[in-house]
Amino acid sequence: MTAIDRTAYPRFKRVVPARELVEAFTPTVAEVAWAREKTQSDQHLLALVVWLKSYQRLGYFPKLDEVPAVVVEHVRGLLGLSDEVRAEHDADRTAKWHRGLVRALVGVKYDAGKARVIAEEAIGRAVTTKDNPADLINVALEELVRARCELPGFSTLDRLVAAIRAETNTALYAMVAARIDLAANARLTRLLWRDPTSGRSEFDRLKTPAKAATLGKFKLRLAHLQALDELGVTEQWLDGIPATKIAHFAGEARVTDVGDMRDIGDAKRLTLLASLIHECRTCARDEVAMMFCKRMAVIHKKGKERLEQLREQHRAETERLIDVFGDVLAGAREASAPAGDGAGPAAAVAERAGRLLLKTLAAAGGVEQLSAAHEVVSAHHGNAGSATGCWICPHRTRCRSPRWTWCRGRCSLATLPRPPPRRARRGSVSLRRRVLDGHHPLGSVTSSRSWSRSTAASPSEARLLPQTRHLQVGESHRAENLIFELWEITSEGSSSRSPPFNDG
Length: 504
Prior knowledge:
The N and C termini lie far apart (106 Å). The chain has helices at residues 18-24, 29-38, 42-58, 69-79, 92-106, 112-126, 133-146, 154-179, 182-190, 202-206, 215-230, 234-237, 243-254, 258-263, 266-336, 346-363, 367-379, 396-399, 421-436, 448-453, 459-462, 465-468, 473-495. It is mostly helical.
């Protein structure tokens, strides 16, 4: 039998507060006059008024001995009766007459058949989506109150719900059992076999929750999910059954042990097992996704920490490369400045710029050493592979460069899109032209040494020198790219054709 405390069936509280006594159990002057007119003794007067207020509060007639004593004392005091007067009936005929008087005053007609039909229809509609008996009783109570019917006893509603629920669930059990073939039936039955060594069955292992998100536990959970999927297609077996019903069947199977499952009928046992497996598959997928997210979060955290360590290790080398680039720009500006005897030919300007450029690179350690340092620093740079078109080249040794913008299309094994060679060539020519014309490709992004050498530095600009050391990541990476393109320009000039200038 369903516990009445879990339903909305109206009943007296264990402790009736004083406010409820005043609001719900205080008769009006008209009600007292009506009760005195209908009765001839104080005992019947008290019993009639107590039943009237109880019916107005509960919607049905409780037994007089079940009415709390505090309610009887409250009504007795308002009626001015002595303490010896008890609320009781002398005969059943008197009680039936009092019930008729109360129904006539309230305006309710007693029709047990109508109330039963209304409750059956309400329960029949709700049983397809709900399975908890308490919920079904609450649905019936709501419909009876809406129809202004006198509420039947709680035991009557409980028996009605049990009969309708059993009939509906039996039909569902038969439907699911008919969808399960013999092979799937054998697999589900095998779950209830107990291992003689461990004393456990596969049915018990289905209920095992996920553990910590370690790599080993993650693999075990994946294997668990695969084993669940191999048991059968539970979506087809349970097609047409509401999710609330499936959840209730799965909950019932989860709290049932192997011995009790064997004693259940075949159709119900298969339905409970299919529902439990369906819920376990859903939970296992959620757990696998959660464990995967946790594992990826740990990997990302470790990767970020390692990336910060590499950046800190290469910070000094990055600043040195930027200083070298500033010296290159200063030399290009010095070479392109007009001489005292007037501007020379373009070949002479190019020769002067080339000598100063090679001299600066040689003083910084040579082209090969700067190239190796650049590759090490740029491999762990923050904007690698950003939307600017710089993609990681998987064949560094073939391309002699870690980035696609420097690949020039020479890598035949690459799979990622490459910029066309003509476009890359234009970039090199435009860079050479900008350097030879004396323009600063980076604007204000220079080192403190090149700033001090610049003839355009004013006192107000000199105060900003400490701030230029703290360059943004994107601008410093851009400086490194330009240094490497300068190296390619010199490499092309010295290897593919005769050098346009001497090393001296």
